[in-house]
Write a structure and sequence with these properties.
Blueprint: E1 8-12, H1 16-29, E2 36-41, H2 57-64, H3 69-75, E3 79-81, E4 83-87, E5 95-99, H4 112-121, H5 133-140, E6 161-163, H6 166-179, E7 183-186, E8 189-194, E9 201-206, E10 211-213, E11 216-219, H7 226-231, E12 236-238, E13 247-253, E14 266-271, E15 274-280, E16 285-291, H8 298-306, E17 318-321, E18 325-327, E19 331-332, E20 335-337, E21 343-344, H9 352-365, H10 374-400, H11 408-415, H12 420-432, H13 445-454, H14 464-468, H15 471-490, H16 495-502
The structure holds flavin-adenine dinucleotide (FAD).
């Protein structure tokens, strides 16, 4: 006989993770009779207060929730993001775009980049950006939706994400979740009760005396990891050896006063002991300096940030400490952690909100009954751990693949021994120009190619079949692809024109 279904879900925490979970679960499971979802949050504690850039999967999350994009853009003061511009990562004075979407177009059934590599060998040194509609549109400050139904259009190779005010996004989702029946309880959780034998969490008690019972607890309490870390004692897997940045200082500022339009790109500029983000929203610019405390003190990090702002600061600096890594079991007993409560990898590729989204999707896929079958929980944990690992390796690549030797920090990064998975990918690319993408990992061939090739990893060869195409034909086709992209970009509206046209500004 099957075990009774879960009837009481309690979400502890109302940051981006908590409200994303509440909105998605109430949308998908809300119609189930007898299911109650409660979210507890403490205004006094507040949220981490950063987290503005996303990756394209968020577009699908919003669609799942039935969100109207124009309304969302307006309410969260969002802008579009076609990729990340990396400045000074390869060496000082160098920049490239890691775009969403794809480069060029596959030819003869072979990935485009093998023809680009052959072009390089023939002396055509055109940078990869010229073959990405996302990179070129981003740099030109232009935006249009992808044309997914038309494979012949260069716009079919485009993908986009958003840059938004995460606090506004959480409030936007809160309204939807409450409309769908989620009960919000205000207050600070001060006690967590567990079943004396199983250790399952049974109830949380708030400072004001309120008690909330549950069967499934979703820990969205941020870095505190109140249930998973503090109560169940699930250990944290520390990856700071590979990802030495462990601090951030963030500050929003006004936009430039010149009236120039912003590019639909997040910018990451490498600094002496870390890097600085610049995320232009409709009404302000988000900035932050991520740095390694072993190589730079807080005062210097703050000064560095303040010296590189577009406009006037709009708040005092927000100092954040973190460790790269994740809880060894993101689901333990009847507690599933989402967001910072489960783990954190520095925001270099804007993956944290995505990990919340994929955690919700995975929770729905393995949604438990009151039996909490270990085999499903183990599977959930193994898949989640793999996600973290894949992202970690991609992040480490950015630090490892640099020619910078102008600071102790960059010397450490350049010479560090990469994790095995990354080492294998680097060896493969160096030897044959091939990119190995494991088990449908988050970052695509475009992403790996972009960072490897643009940060100076030299491919020793290209696909043998690309060698069969005559040299002049390869050069002609490369030039044609560049031309098609440049022409498509010139016909796209600017981001501001596009936002105005959909009513999203
Ligand atoms: P929080 O926002 O910290 O929310 C925790 C919630 O738990 C709050 O509501 C709090 O009140 C509540 N709470 C805690 N303890 C209690 C208690 N005892 N009782 C009741 N309530 C409690 N992600 C991206 O995708 N893109 C980015 O560009 C990005 N940039 C980032 C930059 C930095 C420096 C950092 C640190 C993170 C960044 N992130 C980014 C991550 C992103 O901010 C978070 O993943 C996301 O906001 C989710 O946070 P959260 O909801 O898990 O935690």
């Amino acid at each position: 006989m099957s075990a009774p279904p879960i009837r009481k879900i309690v979400i502890v925490g109302g940051g981006t993770a908590g409200w994303m979970a509440a909105a998605a679960l109430s949308k998908v499971l809300g119609a189930m009779p007898g299911l109650a979802i409660t979210l507890i949050e403490s205004e006094a504690i507040g949220t981490v207060g950063v987290g503005e850039a996303t990756i394209p999967q968020i577009v699908h999350f919003n669609k799942l929730l039935g969100i109207n994009e124009a309304e969302f853009m307006r309410e969260t003061h969002a802008t579009y993001k076609l990729g990340i511009e990396f400045v000074d990562w390869t060496h000082l004075g160098h920049s490239y775009v890691h775009p969403f979407g794809q480069y060029g177009i596959d030819m003869l059934g072979i990935e485009f980049h093998h023809f680009w590599l052959k072009g390089l060998a023939l002396g055509d040194a055109t940078a990869l950006d010229a073959y990405s509609i996302g990179a070129m549109a981003g740099k030109a400050g232009r935006f249009y939706w992808p044309e997914t139904g038309n494979p012949n259009s260069p716009l079919s190779r485009l993908a986009y994400a958003f840059q938004f005010d995460a606090g506004r996004y959480a409030r936007f989702l809160r309204r939807r979740a409450e409309e769908a029946g989620v009960t919000r309880v205000e207050g600070r959780v001060t006690q967590v009760e567990q079943h004396p034998e199983s250790g399952f969490v049974t109830r949380v008690a708030l400072e004001n005396g309120t008690q909330v019972d549950g069967e499934l607890f979703i820990d969205c309490s941020g870095f505190r990891s109140l249930l998973l870390g503090q109560t169940l004692g699930v250990p944290f897997l520390d990856w700071s050896k590979w990802l030495p940045c462990d601090r951030a200082v963030a500050i929003p500022c006004t936009k430039r006063e010149t009236g120039a339009e912003d590019q639909p790109l997040t910018r990451s500029t490498a600094r002496k002991a870390g890097w600085q983000w610049r995320i232009p929203l409709q009404h302000r610019v988000g900035n932050g300096h991520v740095y390694a405390s072993a190589f730079m003190c807080e005062d210097e990090a703050t000064e560095t940030l303040l010296a590189h702002l577009d406009g006037t600061p709009l708040a005092s600096p927000n100092h954040i400490r973190f460790t790269g890594g994740h809880r060894t079991r993101v689901w333990d007993k009847n507690v599933v952690a989402l967001g910072l409560a489960g783990g954190f990898l520095e925001p270099l590729e804007s993956t944290a909100i995505h990990l919340v989204q994929s955690g919700i999707a995975r929770l729905l896929a393995y949604f438990p009954s009151t039996a909490f079958t270990p085999v499903e929980i183990d599977r959930f944990n193994a898949e989640t751990a793999q996600d973290y690992l894949d992202i970690r390796d991609f992040l480490v690549l950015h630090y490892k693949a640099t020619a910078r030797d102008d600071s102790e920090f960059w010397n450490y990064c350049r010479t560090l021994e990469p994790p095995d998975g990354l080492k294998a990918k680097l060896e493969m690319f160096r030897s044959s120009g091939r990119i190995v993408r494991e088990h449908n990992e988050l970052f695509t061939e475009t992403s790996w190619l972009s960072v490897m090739a643009c940060q100076g990893i030299v491919a020793g060869d290209h696909h043998p079949a690309a060698a069969l195409l005559p040299d002049d034909e390869v050069l002609r086709r490369l030039s044609h692809v560049r031309g098609v992209i440049a022409s498509a970009v010139s016909q796209m509206p600017t981001q501001d024109q596009f936002l105005a046209s959909i009513g999203g500004a």
